[in-house]
Amino acid sequence: MLILLLVVFGLSLFLGRYPHVGLISPAQLTEDPLAQRLILNLRLPRLIASVLIGMSLAGAGMVMQMVFANPLVEPGFLGVSQAAAFGAALTILASGGVGWQVQFSAVIFGLAGLFLSYLLARRVRYGGWVLRLLLAGIAVSALFASGVGLIKYLADPLRQLPDITFWLLGGLWSITWRSVLSVLPLISLGLLVLWLMRWRLNLLALDDEVVFSLGVAANRERLLVLLAAVAVTAASISISGLIGWVGLLVPQLARRLSGADARDGLPTAFLSGGIFMMICDNLARTISAGEIPLGILTSLLGALGFVILMTRRTYKV
């Protein structure tokens, strides 16, 4: 998977629509200064961002599915994505959308979305914990989605509304080295925490009684991995906008490839997420002269892939 990731990264670096649709010849780079600047200043940071975002969303989806013992959970189902979108849209409305302010607001509201879902789930009086948390996440997501709709209604239709609309569709067209460097520390730290805790996820996926009998501080460790998962998700959304289905589809694929053991499944999800995101971004910027929003492609390919996986009868556990 790592070799495949590097191969896709290398090919993607030379793939585009300049000077023609297809791959740029390496020899041309020595003769065309514009091609050099295009690769070094536009494509390279964009590809790095797509790998980081794919790893973050896929890893967060895998962690949440294991912690909540539900293969249909992803950050978007727990209020994280919509809350981060609300924070970013609110900042665009209030201050015009300065880059670091949008990113900071998305991270803070993403964490707040998970916290509200958790508090609401504690107050629900019926159903198991997983059902209560999902119901709470749906309610919190709807609450923040209505807030985003209200912000779009209040936004200036000529100056603010286009920025909010394009941000909600998702895309990497505005990625620069500054964007990558602004989220690199938080995403790197969050992914490192998830990587180090991957072998504990097998324990955290068990029932509370079993985990307690093994001497594991389940609540504290679950909180740690959830905070790391939410942090990388919100940081990713803050520079790419809303990107759907990655956190749901890729963990399913990773389990089919490597099994249910998180020690193998989580690294596979990281690498698969990076590959999937690069492929989607390549399609978004090369299919047509006008770039297709990335969120549309990930939703389309993710939904089709999810249907194929769910209708297959072979499972690897």
What do these coordinates show?
By secondary structure, the protein is mostly helical. The protein has a single domain (42-310), classed as ABC transporter involved in vitamin B12 uptake, BtuC. It has helices at 2-14, 26-29, 33-67, 80-95, 99-123, 129-154, 161-169, 177-196, 198-204, 208-213, 218-240, 246-258, 262-286, 294-311; strands at 15-16, 22-23. The mean pLDDT is 86. GO terms for molecular function: transmembrane transporter activity. InterPro entries: ABC_BtuC-like (IPR037294), ABC_transptr_permease_BtuC (IPR000522). It is a multi-pass membrane protein. Pfam families: FecCD.
What is the strand and helix layout of this fold?
Blueprint: H1 2-14, E1 15-16, E2 22-23, H2 26-29, H3 33-67, H4 80-95, H5 99-123, H6 129-154, H7 161-169, H8 177-196, H9 198-204, H10 208-213, H11 218-240, H12 246-258, H13 262-286, H14 294-311
Antiparallel strand pairs: 1-2
Helix pairs in contact: 1-3, 1-13, 3-8, 3-11, 3-12, 3-13, 4-5, 4-6, 4-7, 4-11, 5-6, 5-11, 8-11, 9-13, 12-13, 12-14, 13-14
Membrane topology: Multi-pass membrane protein
Subcellular location: Cell membrane
Keywords: Cell membrane, Membrane, Transmembrane, Transmembrane helix, Transport
Sheet with the most strands: spatial strand order: 1-2
Which ranges are low-confidence, i.e. pLDDT below 50, for 5 or more consecutive residues? none
How many beta-strand runs?
Answer: 2
Kindly identify the CATH topology: ABC transporter involved in vitamin B12 uptake, BtuC
Q: Helix/strand-derived class?
A: mainly alpha
Q: Major β-sheet, in short?
A: 2 strands, antiparallel
Transmembrane segments: 48-69, 76-94, 100-121, 133-155, 175-196, 223-248, 292-311
Subcellular location: Cell membrane
InterPro entries: ABC_BtuC-like, ABC_transptr_permease_BtuC
Keywords: Cell membrane, Membrane, Transmembrane, Transmembrane helix, Transport
